[in-house]
Amino acid sequence: MTKYTHHHVAVFLLTFFSYAFFHATRKTFSNVKSTISDEWSPSYHNNTVNFTKPDRIWNTRHLFDTRKDAEPYLGILDAVFMISYAVGLYISGMIGDRFNMRLVLSFGMCSSAVTVFLFGVVFEWVHFYNKYVYVIVWILNGLLQSMGWPTVVAIMGNWFGRYSRGLVLGLWSACASVGNIIGAFLVSGVLDFGYDYAFLVTSSILFAGGVVNFFGLVSTPKEVGLSLPDEDAAVHPKEYTVRVNGTDDDETINMPHVLYKQEHLVEDDDTPSHGANDNGDSEEDAPLLNSPHKQSGASSSDNRPAAIGFCSALCLPGVALYALAYACLKLVNYSFFFWLPYYLHNKYRWKETVADDISIWYDVGGIIGGTIFGFISDRFQHRSIIVIPMLILGIPALFIYNSNLSNTLTLNGLLMAVVGFFIGGVANLVSAAISADLGKQGPVQGNSEALATVTGIIDGTGSVGAAIGQILVPVIQDGLGWRSVFYLFMLMTLLTALCILPLFVREVKDLYAKRRVRYSWFTGASVSNGTEDTEELFN
């Protein structure tokens, strides 16, 4: 079992609150939309006073004729942010694998804080209002914010091993939900002074977090003289063999850029390869098998595995399927993030403050679900066999939540927490623990230069789905009503399960292909057949 140190605790907390502060700044814009709509529209007048003089003072912020005209523009800002965020994730993942992730994360936090400060504070203080400049600045903010998730997941994957990763990252993935709650509380505390103060507070905290990470975050255990987690430190030859769909045939995936050097290389049948190779050369003469200690003049940078490319990461087993699945699932998850308070206010006519308070229960359910699912998947040592049943149960949960049973505050909050448990919990597990697993598997096991790229691919594809959702939800709601919107959510949840189904089938076959599989909540799944051990069950 991995021995945790104070470095593990520090990394957990620093990365947790780093991404929580990212989400707090996003939540700021969502929570001040009503105020911004009023500020950017002409001042209201009563029936007796139709004009106010001088007009240039009262209507300096006049960007739109009415408050209703401002709402589509705010939706455009949401859409361009998600699109730029999705594009940035693909790029940021590869950047994180090629540069120091501590520096990438710190730069992303500080530069994003400056952008948010410019958007919400500087423009308001100097009375500069331009729709096109706002869009450009918000696109830049999306690109800079994309540096957060791939790097924090990669750093956590470097510190926590696979057998405990489900529980640890399941709990850690609550950072987004905690950030939403933090942002809501911060905004509500200063919004009476003006929306610019809301942006000022959250951007200042984000910038301060970036400075703390620059001086205090350790991106990998090797930087402080610690070894990588035991289960991820196994050394593999250049060619790694992956069994596909539980068949006896082996599919060989060649990753020539991934090279692991070791002093003793042992074949799969535990037969030492100390003799001559097929060409009659001794082991010392084989360049790929040489110990790094025997290579004179080799620089320390040669011992660092090369970062994999985008296409190589996409071709890793399970990455494409989970990326497509997360596109469908994030559409549902982020639609709740953006539209849940609006839905509660319009359908049940509850006050906006009440709707904001009730919507928190979705995040609470996601926190609980992600933690529990992570723990159970650690015990089973497989992820998909937990994800599929939870997604199937999430479909009736969505149907019941949209029924008349949720017309009271108590029942609505309870059913909302159940939906968050299944939908938000699985989303947290996929975006964190499963992304880390896929970036540490098979051909790149032990290579820390692939995790951020894989995470960027999965979350970037998910953000594309979320951006599409921000276009579909208002269109469907306006034409067909909220019931049809929830039918869309159920369809997307079903498509998520179908995308992961091949991996689910393979994992079930892996479990039942063994003659005797024993299960314990303390030790997880294990095999009592021959010399096979627990590690063989974990793909």
In short:
This protein is mostly helical. It is built from 17 helices and four strands. The model is unreliable at 231-302 and 529-539 (pLDDT under 50).
**Numbering strands along the chain, what is their spatial order in the largest sheet?**
1-2
Structural class: mainly alpha
**Biggest pleated sheet:** 2 strands, antiparallel
Count of alpha and pi helical runs:
17
Q: Helix fraction?
A: 55-70%
Strand percent estimate:
under 5%
Unreliable segments of 5+ consecutive residues: 231-302, 529-539
Give a count of the beta strands, DSSP E runs of length 2 or more.
4
End-to-end CA span: 19 Å
Give the overall form.
globular
Radius of gyration: 26 Å
- SSE arrangement, N to C: HHHHHHHHHHEEHHHHHHHEE
Describe this structure in words.
With 539 residues, the protein is mainly alpha-helical. The protein has helices spanning 6-31, 33-39, 55-58, 67-98, 101-125, 131-145, 148-159, 162-172, 175-190, 195-216, 310-314, 319-348, 352-380, 384-401, 409-438, 451-480, 482-512; strands at residues 239-243, 250-254, 517-520, 524-527. Helix 16 (451-480) runs antiparallel to helix 17 (482-512). The longest helix has 32 residues, at 67-98.
Fill in the keyword field for this structure.
4 strands, mainly alpha, two-stranded antiparallel ribbon, 3% strand, 17 helices, 539 residues, two-stranded antiparallel sheet, disordered C terminus, globular, single chain
